[in-house]
């Protein structure tokens, strides 16, 4: 077994195989495990995927939403145990890989067109 | 048991701990090593254990080395290194040393050869500040003054200058072991270790200042 295969096998224990197919521009709901006063609960976080990073166990998405008039971006490691669930709510049409331009837009301009050719 | 182990750096990845935090780890193939010589106070004046690692073809080694290895009936091994121990009678020739002597949570010192950077300048080698890049400045990456003038009339020894950087033995101290894989002799060490993947590493229990470990 070569070095790369050994490292892959270590990662394989923690890689989730039930992740949905996510694309940049999608609207997703991420269930985040948080511990509050010794109790664990799952908090939903909903927003638009504006960036994705591949890389095996290091795979991550950046989810942006506007909360109380303030833009919030969170980066989730998809394979992290803290990410309890991910659900794609809406497929959006994006013409580039990183939607950082959405940061400079407010209101209606932040909307993305919905696309219907990809299944949810 | 305070003897260290030799291993090969395989690469880095990250794993998630119980709390769900991502922990950066280096995967190290540690051993199996063979005890090739036991040095005692009586015979050698100090107590140490020499271990060997890295099996190679017999023709790759010269006859003196093969003769030395045959005393412990070890296979042809590329690397030999000794570790000081307090009680060498615990070890016997030909004994195999594997990764399971370490446990998760233990602190270790990892030594190896750092990545060679060739002839490196002041900024890279000694973290000098650079000069202004614009406004007519022609001093971009120059060293500045190297000392006084006519007195002393020379540059003092030890003045930090450009030169060969890296490719020297360095030790990263007090790294914690995240996981031990007994079956495949793997160690997962938190953080980074010297060298590139494939580099030879020496992993020894951490030397804590003010604490005599295994002496």
UniProtKB/TrEMBL annotation, chain A:
GO biological process, one term: translation
Transmembrane segments: none
InterPro entries the UniProt entry points to: Ribosomal_bL19 (IPR001857), Ribosomal_bL19_CS (IPR018257), Ribosomal_bL19_sf (IPR038657), Translation_prot_SH3-like_sf (IPR008991)
UniProt keyword list: Ribonucleoprotein, Ribosomal protein
GO molecular function: structural constituent of ribosome
SUPFAM superfamilies: Translation proteins SH3-like domain (SSF50104)
Any single GO CC term annotated in Swiss-Prot or TrEMBL for this entry: cytosolic large ribosomal subunit
Family as reported in the entry's similarity comment: Belongs to the bacterial ribosomal protein bL19 family.
HAMAP family for this protein: Ribosomal_bL19 (MF_00402)
PANTHER family assigned: LARGE RIBOSOMAL SUBUNIT PROTEIN BL19M, RIBOSOMAL PROTEIN L19
Function of the molecule: This protein is located at the 30S-50S ribosomal subunit interface and may play a role in the structure and function of the aminoacyl-tRNA binding site.
Record's protein name: Large ribosomal subunit protein bL19
Organism of derivation: Vasconcelosia minhoensis LEGE 07310
Lineage start: Bacteria, Bacillati, Cyanobacteriota, Cyanophyceae, Nodosilineales
From TrEMBL, chain B:
UniProt-listed SUPFAM superfamilies: Translation proteins
GO biological process: translation
Superkingdom of the source species: Bacteria
Pfam families found in the cross-reference section: Ribosomal_L3 (PF00297)
PROSITE patterns linked to this entry: RIBOSOMAL_L3
InterPro entries xrefs: Ribosomal_uL3 (IPR000597), Ribosomal_uL3_bac/org-type (IPR019927), Ribosomal_uL3_CS (IPR019926), Transl_B-barrel_sf (IPR009000)
GO MF entries: rRNA binding; structural constituent of ribosome
Assigned keywords, A-Z: Ribonucleoprotein, Ribosomal protein, RNA-binding, rRNA-binding
Region (Disordered) residue spans: 128-161
GO CC terms of this entry: cytosolic large ribosomal subunit
Function: One of the primary rRNA binding proteins, it binds directly near the 3'-end of the 23S rRNA, where it nucleates assembly of the 50S subunit.
Subunit structure: Part of the 50S ribosomal subunit. Forms a cluster with proteins L14 and L19.
Similarity remark: Belongs to the universal ribosomal protein uL3 family.
HAMAP family: Ribosomal_uL3_B
UniProt name for this protein: Large ribosomal subunit protein uL3
Organism: Vasconcelosia minhoensis LEGE 07310
Species classification: Bacteria, Bacillati, Cyanobacteriota, Cyanophyceae, Nodosilineales
Gene: rplC
């Amino acid at each position: 077994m070569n070095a790369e295969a050994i490292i892959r096998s270590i990662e394989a224990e923690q890689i989730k195989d039930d992740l949905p197919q996510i694309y940049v521009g999608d609207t997703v709901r991420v269930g985040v495990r948080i511990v509050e006063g010794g109790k664990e609960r799952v908090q939903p976080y909903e927003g638009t995927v504006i960036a994705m990073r591949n890389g095996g166990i290091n795979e991550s998405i950046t989810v942006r939403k506007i909360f109380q008039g303030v833009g919030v971006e969170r980066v989730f490691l998809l394979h992290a145990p803290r990410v309890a669930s991910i659900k794609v709510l809406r497929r959006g049409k994006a013409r580039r890989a990183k939607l950082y331009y959405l940061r400079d837009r407010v209101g209606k301009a932040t909307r993305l067109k919905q696309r219907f050719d990809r299944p949810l | 048991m305070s003897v260290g182990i030799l291993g090969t750096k395989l690469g880095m990845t990250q794993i998630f701990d119980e709390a769900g935090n991502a922990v950066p780890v280096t995967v190290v193939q540690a051993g199996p090593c063979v005890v090739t010589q036991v040095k005692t106070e009586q015979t050698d004046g100090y107590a140490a254990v020499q271990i060997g690692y890295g099996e190679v073809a017999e023709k790759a080694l010269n006859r003196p080395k093969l003769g030395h290895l045959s005393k412990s009936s070890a296979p042809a091994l590329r690397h030999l290194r000794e570790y000081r121990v307090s009680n060498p009678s615990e070890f016997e020739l030909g004994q195999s040393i594997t990764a399971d002597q370490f446990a998760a949570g233990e602190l270790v010192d990892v030594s190896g050869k750092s990545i060679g950077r060739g002839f490196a300048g002041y900024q890279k080698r000694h973290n000098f500040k650079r000069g202004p890049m614009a406004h007519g400045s022609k001093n971009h990456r120059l060293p500045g003054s190297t000392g006084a003038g006519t007195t002393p009339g020379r540059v003092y020894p030890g003045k930090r200058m450009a030169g060969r950087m890296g490719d020297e033995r360095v030790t990263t101290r007090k790294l914690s072991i995240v996981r031990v894989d007994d079956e495949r002799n793997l160690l997962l060490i938190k953080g980074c270790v010297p060298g590139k993947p494939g580099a030879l590493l020496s992993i020894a229990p951490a030397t804590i200042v003010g604490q005599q470990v295994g002496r």
